[in-house]
Design goal:
single chain, Rossmann fold, alpha/beta, five-stranded parallel sheet
Length: about 160
């Protein structure tokens, strides 16, 4: 059985290169992922589909960015993941705000100008996920490598 990640994210233009890069890395390593805008079907209830996919996933990878921090979808998806007792790995962009229900949320900070700084913390968070070392390493480096390429202007 393959490892499945639900990727929670905003659709802001500044966030899409990070999202695309992470998903390409996941796919390259044989890790399946769900993206609502990619996997939605016409006539289907999107909220029901999203909740079902969260419950079927092995973990939630949530991105809270400066541009997308107000996204109701990201907030709801992370909340559903927590209530479903799924491991939720939250990547918080430096400068984004955690307010309301998210104020006590455990997260790993990502500074787009110094992405390497979050590698150790992200790796430690993924050690809490019930997966093989290869899967944990692949997911961790999907985030770090993509952020690094963005920093260098290569994606």
């Amino acid at each position: 059985m393959t490892f499945s990640v639900f990727v929670s994210h905003s659709m802001r233009p500044h966030d899409l290169p990070l999202l695309r890069g992470v998903c390409e890395h996941l796919s390259h390593h044989g890790i399946t992922y769900y993206l609502a805008e990619r996997d939605w079907r016409f006539g289907e209830s999107l909220p029901a589909r999203v909740e079902g996919e969260i419950r079927r996933s092995d973990c939630i990878l949530g991105f809270i960015t400066k541009e997308g921090q107000a996204s109701a979808y990201v907030n709801q998806e992370i909340g559903i993941g927590i209530s479903a007792k799924k491991p939720v790995i939250t990547v918080l962009e430096k400068g984004a705000d955690l307010t309301g229900f998210r104020s006590g949320l455990d997260y790993v900070e990502l500074d787009r100008l110094a992405p390497q700084d979050c590698a150790t913390k992200l790796s430690a968070k993924f050690n809490q996920v019930n997966a093989t070392d290869e899967v944990r390493t692949a997911i961790c480096w999907a985030v770090i490598a993509t952020a690094g390429l963005l920093f260098l202007g290569r994606t």
